[in-house]
Design goal:
- This protein is mainly beta.
- Helix content is 8%, strand content 45%.
- It has one helix and twelve strands; from the N terminus they run βββββββββββαβ.
- Strands 5-2-1-12-7 form a five-stranded mixed β-sheet, with no helix packed on it.
- The mean pLDDT is 94.
Length: 113
């Protein structure tokens, strides 16, 4: 689950069902509240803001942009430039690894306020 109001993510570790929590920095395009499913994954890339990222996990397309979890390779998670149109949900590298290791295409992502 992801809470937009609390800027937190609670990944569930299959098959144990254990959860942990990490902070998340939302982009300028918020994910829609509701249930979504992982639709794609890329090990590395460059975000719309020019930041080198890894462990990219896509789960929604809204407002003409993809919403995805990703971790900056530099491990510096910062608020996005408000002039940019980005759906990135940035996390630190340890959280990005946990998300990457516990999701596959079709995994459920629940977004709450």
């Amino acid at each position: 689950s992801v809470s937009l109001a609390f800027c937190r993510i609670w990944p569930v570790v299959p098959p144990t069902g254990k959860t942990t929590t990490f902070p998340v920095q939302p982009g300028t395009v918020p994910a829609k509240v509701g249930t979504h499913y992982v639709t794609g994954r890329h090990p590395t890339g460059v975000g719309g803001d020019g930041v080198s990222i890894e462990h990219v996990v896509y789960f929604e397309y809204t407002a003409e942009t993809w919403v995805a979890f990703s971790a900056p390779v530099s491990d510096k998670v910062a608020a996005p430039d408000p002039s940019l149109h980005t759906g990135a949900l940035r996390v630190h590298r340890n959280a990005g690894t946990a998300i990457w290791n516990n999701t596959v295409n079709g995994s459920t992502v629940v977004v709450v306020r």
